[in-house]
């Protein structure tokens, strides 16, 4: 599967401008537990922290949201602190953008 197909399957629009390529997106990795990372749209297969990632269709505003109480514990989301610190050195802004 090509990178283009992966992005389309995740409902992610293909970046066309420099600003879009630099845009932060939420990516994920599964090693049994779901962990979310942050990536630049230009390189969604790798998190800011260097972890290999997969694209998601999650809006950036969903970062940090707790998991659904009804979900089993291993499906609760974890958010990469390294990525957050790289993306927002002074803390995540309340209203991104
Ligand atoms: Zn990370």
Question: Could you explain the architecture of this structure?
Answer:
- The protein is of the alpha+beta class and 97 residues long.
- The protein has one domain.
- Helices cover 20% and strands 19% of the residues.
- It has 3 helices and 4 strands; from the N terminus they run ααββββα.
- It has a 4-stranded mixed sheet.
- It is globular and about 40 Å long.
- The termini are far apart.
- The structure holds zinc ion (ZN).
- Residues 37, 47-49, 51, 80, 82-83 line the site of zinc ion.
Secondary structure elements and pairings:
Elements: H1 3-9, H2 18-22, E1 24-30, E2 34-40, E3 54-55, E4 78-79, H3 81-87
Parallel strand pairs: 2-4
Antiparallel strand pairs: 1-2, 1-3
Bound molecules: zinc ion.
Residues 37, 47-49, 51, 80, 82-83 line the site of zinc ion.
Number of strands: 4
**Termini Cα gap:** 32 Å
Q: State the helicity in percent bands.
A: 10-25%
Run of helices and strands: HHEEEEH
Structural domain count: 1
Query: Compute the gyration radius: what is it?
Result: 13 Å
Number of helices: 3
Q: For the report, how would you describe the main beta sheet?
A: 4 strands, mixed
Overall pLDDT level: 84
Q: How would the global form be characterised?
A: globular
Bound molecules: zinc ion
Relative strand content? 15-25%
Model regions low in confidence, pLDDT < 50 over at least 5 residues: none
Structural class: alpha+beta
Query: Which strands sit side by side, in order, in the main sheet?
Result: 3-1-2-4
